[in-house]
Structure prediction request, 319 residues.
Amino acid sequence: MYSKEFVTNVYRTLLTIRVFETECIKLYRQGFIRGYFHPYLGEEAIAVGVCAALTDKDYITSTHRGHGHCIANGANLDKMIAELLGKKDGYCKGLGGSMHIADTTKGNLGANGIVGAGIPIGVGAALATKIRKDDAVTVTFSSDGAANNGVFSEALNLAAAWDLPFILVLENNQYAVSTPIKESTREVELVKRGESLGVKSFRIDGNNVFEVYETTKEAIRICKEEKGPVLIEAVTFRHGGHHVNDPGLYLQKEELDYYMSKDPVEFARKYLIDDLGLNESEVEEIDSIVNKQIEDSIEFAKENGEMSSKEFLKFIENY
Ligand SMILES: Cc1ncc(C[n+]2csc(CCOP(=O)(O)OP(=O)(O)O)c2C)c(N)n1
Ligand SMILES: [Mg+2]
Prediction:
C-alpha cells in the first residue's frame, strides 16, 4: 500500500492537469488562446506515474499533447498559462504557445509539434548523459501515431545499439487524429515494436497511475543496472477529440464509456478514500487548493502584458 503523502501528491498532480486542461479549454473558447490545443484529458495517469519515478537529474521530451507532461514534471503554472495566452512572462515569452513549452531547469527538453520528433532528441539526451556518466535517464513521451514514423524505429534502434539509458513511453490512446490504430498498422500491440529491436518492453494499463509508476521504476532500474533502452506501451484513451475544435465523433461510444469508467483522476480519488481512509472533506480540501491555484494562474496570465513590437524586435535581434 502507498503512503497518504505519496497518493495525495499523485492525486493533486492528476487533478491539476485535469483542471488546467478543463479551464484552458474554456479560455480557448472565449478567445483568450489561439492556435492549436491538444487536451491531455483522460491520459493524466501516464505523465503523473512516469514523472513520480523521476528525479531532478532526469530528462523528458514531450509531444503536441504535452501540458500534462510539463505539469507532472514540475512546470510553473503561471508561466504555462501565460504562454498559452501569448503573454510576455510565458515560458517562451508568449511566442511559442501550447506546443513549445520547455523548462530546462527541470530537465524538460520541450514539447514538439512534429510527431515523433521528440524521440531522437530524447535519444540524443540519453547519449549525452551516458558520455558524461550522469546518473540519469531520459524519458520520451510519444503516441501510437508516432510509432509509424520512420524516426521511431531509427532512433529506438540506435538507442538499443548504443545501450542508452532511454525510456520510450508510448501513450497508446489508440487514435492518430481520427485514424484508429487498427487502420494504420496490422500489429496493434506496439510493445512488439520494441521487442523486435531487442528492447525490453512492457504493455501496461495507462489509466492506472500506480502501474505506470511501478513500470517506470523498473525501466529506470533496467537502464541503470542492466542496459537500456526500455519501451513502455501505456494503453489509454482520450476523453475527447484530437484538439479542442474536433468533436471526436469517430470515437466509439463503447470504448469511450469503458475508458470513462477507468478515469485516472477518479481512480486515485477512490484510492485515497477507500484504501487510505481520507474522508470526503479532506479530499475536497485538496480539490479547492488545486482549483484556487489554477484560478490564480489564470488571473496572473490575463493581467500579464504581451511583448511590444519593440521588445520583440530587440528579442529576435539578440537571439
Ligand atoms: C511528422 C508529422 N506528421 C503529421 C503531423 C500532423 N499531426 C499532428 S498530431 C497528429 C497525430 C498524432 O497521433 P499520435 O502520435 O497518436 O498522437 P496523439 O495525438 O494521439 O497524442 C498528426 C498526424 C505532424 N504534426 N507531424
Ligand atoms: Mg495517438
